[in-house]
Design brief:
Helix content: 40-55%
Radius of gyration: 21 Å
Distance between the termini: 76 Å
Structural class: alpha/beta
Strand order of the largest sheet: 1-2-4-3-5-6-7-8
CATH superfamily: Alpha/Beta hydrolase fold, catalytic domain
Number of domains: 1
C-alpha cells in the first residue's frame, strides 16, 4: 500500500468514525429527553400508609395536564406544606414511599408527577429544564387553591427533582427551606457521568455532540437551569443529602454544589454506602429523623 492509499484509507476511516459518532450522539440525545420506553407505573399510594389524600389535576403554562396528591398532615391540614419533586424515570409514588412519614410530623405533603412520568401527560422529559414549568404550575395551583396551607412552604427534590427544587427555591425566595438529595451539579456533568459510568461512552466527542442535539430538539439550552447556576441565589436554609457510592452524582460533585451554596444555614449529610436514589433505604430510621428534624426546625 503506497502513501496515497494509506492517506485515503486513513481519511475514509476518520470520516467513518465521525459519522458514527454523530449518529450515536443523535440517538443518545433521545434517551436524555425522553423517559424510559415503558413508564414506571404508580404502585405506591397514600392509602397504603393510611393517609388521607386528594387526587389533583392541574395544567402547565404549555398546556400539559399533570397529576398529583395533596396529603394533609395527620390530624388535619396545617399551614406548613412540603412540595416534593421526584427524579428522572420514576414517579410520585416512589418518592411517597421514602417520605410519607413527614405527614405524621405535622406537614401537608404535595406530590406530583412531572411531565412524561407516572400519570401526567407529555412525552418529553428534559432532566429539569421543562420540569421547572411543572413546578411553577404546582406552586401556582397550591397558592390559589390551598392558600392557608402555603403560608409556610418548603421544597424537597431528589436527583432531577433536586435540580428543579433548587431552581424553584432561587425563583421563589418565600419558600422557607430546601432539601436536595442526590442532586447533580449541572446538566452537562450529569450527562457526562451517566454516559461514562453507565454506558462507558467517552466524553469527547460524544457528550458535546449529544448535548448539541439536545439543545436543538428542546429549542433551548437547558444548562442555565442547572443547580450550579442557581444554588448561589438561595439564602434560605438548605440541606444536601448524598451517598458516597453514587456514580451519577459523585461525592465530589455534591461537595462542589454544597460549596457554591451561599446560605448561612446549610448542611450536608453523606450517607455511607448509599448509591443513587438509595439514601432513604440505606439511611433507615436515621434518615427519617434527620429529614423530619430539618423541616421541623426551618418550616
Amino acid at each position: 500500500m503506497n502513501a496515497i492509499e494509506i492517506f485515503n484509507w486513513s481519511l475514509f476511516s476518520a470520516l467513518g468514525l465521525a459519522v458514527s459518532a454523530v449518529i450515536i450522539a443523535y440517538f443518545k440525545s433521545y434517551s436524555i429527553i425522553q423517559p424510559p420506553r415503558r413508564r414506571t407505573p404508580v404502585t405506591q399510594h397514600p392509602d397504603q400508609y393510611k393517609l388521607a389524600y386528594e387526587t389533583i389535576d392541574f395544567t402547565t403554562a404549555d398546556e400539559l395536564t399533570l397529576r398529583g396528591w395533596f396529603i394533609p398532615a395527620v390530624g388535619g391540614e396545617t399551614d406548613k406544606t412540603i412540595i416534593l419533586c421526584h427524579g428522572w424515570g420514576v414517579n410520585r409514588g416512589d418518592l411517597l414511599r421514602d417520605t410519607h412519614f413527614l405527614a405524621e410530623k405535622g406537614f401537608n405533603l404535595f406530590y406530583f408527577d412531572f411531565r412524561a412520568s407516572g400519570e401526567s401527560k407529555g412525552t418529553i422529559s428534559s432532566l429539569g429544564y421543562l420540569e421547572t414549568r411543572d413546578f411553577d404550575a404546582a406552586y401556582d395551583f397550591l397558592k390559589t387553591h390551598r392558600p392557608r396551607a402555603m403560608e409556610h412552604a418548603a421544597v424537597f427534590g431528589s436527583s432531577m427533582g433536586g435540580s428543579v427544587a433548587i431552581f424553584a427555591a432561587a425563583k421563589h425566595p418565600e419558600l422557607r427551606c430546601l432539601m436536595a438529595e442526590n442532586t447533580f451539579l449541572s446538566y452537562q456533568r450529569v450527562v457526562a457521568n451517566w454516559s461514562w459510568m453507565r454506558t462507558k461512552v467517552p466524553y469527547y466527542p460524544l457528550v458535546p455532540l449529544t448535548l448539541a442535539f439536545v439543545k436543538m430538539k428542546l429549542g433551548a439550552n437547558p444548562e442555565p437551569f442547572s443547580p450550579a447556576h442557581n444554588i448561589a441565589k438561595i439564602t434560605a436554609p438548605v440541606m444536601f443529602i448524598n451517598g458516597d457510592n453514587d456514580d451519577i452524582v459523585p461525592l465530589h460533585d455534591a461537595e462542589t454544589l454544597f460549596g457554591m451554596c451561599k446560605s448561612e444555614k446549610k448542611q450536608m449529610w453523606v450517607i455511607t454506602g448509599a448509591s443513587h436514589g438509595k439514601c432513604a433505604e440505606v439511611g433507615g430510621e436515621v434518615y427519617k429523623n434527620k429529614v423530619a428534624q430539618f423541616f421541623s426546625e426551618n418550616l
